[in-house]
Write a sequence for this structure.
């Protein structure tokens, strides 16, 4: 079985730690390891290093290689220009389909946390066994919802279709991306919905044929790139063809159009969290909502429900009587914001472009 970890995002919701030159997945935001390192390590030893692939931007391939030196460098796949997830998945699946067309593969993301790793790896293995028997299936792995989130996608699932080694595979009835607050409450109460993590098990050939069916333009460009490999002008063709790729998410390009009968859902509590934004990181690391989540040199008195991160060794943060704030201190930026205002961070960073503050992005 193969695993592909996507690590190409910029992560502006975790600014000022996450920057274009070193996005969130390459920074230490959880303990002393980056989320990319954690994503790779939680696959070991069940996955051999040569069976792990990382998809990232060409500008970050050396950074990836330095952080996970045991993964072969040829398994680090760099996009020549940044596009959305649709083209990235298509290209990787096209590459793997040439080598391992019907071998099970799991798609993962580099900026997530999974606390129940033993259970998670069991689900992956059993899902891979099912896909071996039926290569034209896609199995979505969902997290049992902990609350009515309107910032995540949801999967609607039906009755149990099959059980293997205590893993239940349920019918797939569709997606809903970021429902409004009232609909999220309905989903949470229904018992027929789970959080969509973007994790799935399938085969490279099946996913690539879905692109051929539903996104033929992307499929054709990938075929042109792969068929030119080994030619003297390969790098030029790669850049040219990839630049022509549309900006489209994988869900919009393919998943929303698949036949429900080709998909199954596994849902469990694997302790999953998306740490792509500061408030999500706090939720992932806290034991209770009123807890302070802290890192670095600081003194905290009379504070509750804050995330306070200090990356500057020469300065101590002293926090007194704070409630519901984000405080993130780096060498060149001090961010202070309400937890409820975190959505504004991305827009602020975007507004810095073309100004004297652009170097901070």
């Amino acid at each position: 079985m193969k695993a592909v970890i996507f690590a190409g995002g910029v992560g502006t919701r975790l600014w000022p730690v996450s920057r274009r030159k070193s996005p969130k997945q390459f920074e230490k935001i959880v303990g002393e390891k980056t989320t990319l390192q954690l994503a790779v390590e939680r696959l070991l030893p069940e996955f051999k290093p040569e069976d792990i692939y990382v998809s990232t931007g060409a500008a970050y391939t050396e950074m990836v290689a330095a952080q996970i030196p045991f993964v072969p460098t040829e398994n680090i796949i760099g996009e020549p220009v940044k596009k959305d997830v649709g083209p990235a998945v298509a290209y990787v699946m096209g590459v793997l389909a040439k080598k391992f067309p019907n071998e099970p593969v799991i798609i993962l993301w580099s900026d997530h946390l999974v606390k129940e790793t033993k259970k998670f790896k069991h689900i992956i293995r059993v899902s891979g066994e099912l896909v071996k028997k039926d290569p034209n299936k896609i199995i979505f792995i969902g997290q049992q919802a902990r609350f009515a989130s309107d910032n995540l996608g949801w999967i609607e699932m039906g009755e149990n279709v099959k059980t293997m080694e205590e893993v239940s595979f349920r019918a797939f009835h569709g997606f809903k991306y970021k429902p409004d607050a009232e609909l999220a409450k309905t989903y949470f109460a229904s018992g027929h919905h789970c959080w969509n993590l973007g994790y799935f098990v399938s085969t490279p050939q099946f996913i690539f044929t879905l692109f051929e069916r539903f996104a033929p333009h992307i499929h054709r460009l990938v075929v042109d790139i792969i068929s030119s490999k080994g030619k003297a002008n390969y790098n030029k063709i790669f850049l040219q063809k990839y630049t022509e790729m549309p900006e489209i998410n994988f869900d919009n390009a393919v998943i929303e159009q698949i036949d429900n009968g080709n998909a199954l859902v596994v849902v469990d509590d694997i302790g999953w969290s998306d740490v792509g934004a500061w408030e999500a990181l706090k939720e992932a690391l806290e034991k209770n909502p009123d807890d302070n989540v802290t890192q670095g040199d600081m003194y905290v008195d009379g504070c509750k429900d804050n995330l306070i991160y200090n990356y500057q060794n020469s300065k101590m943060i002293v926090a007194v009587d704070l409630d519901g704030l984000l405080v993130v201190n780096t060498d060149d930026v001090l961010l202070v914001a309400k937890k409820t205002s975190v959505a504004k961070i991305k827009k602020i960073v975007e507004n810095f472009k073309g100004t004297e503050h652009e170097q901070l992005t």
Summary: The chain has a mean pLDDT of 94. The chain has two domains: 2-274, 279-360. The two ends are 38 Å apart (CA to CA).
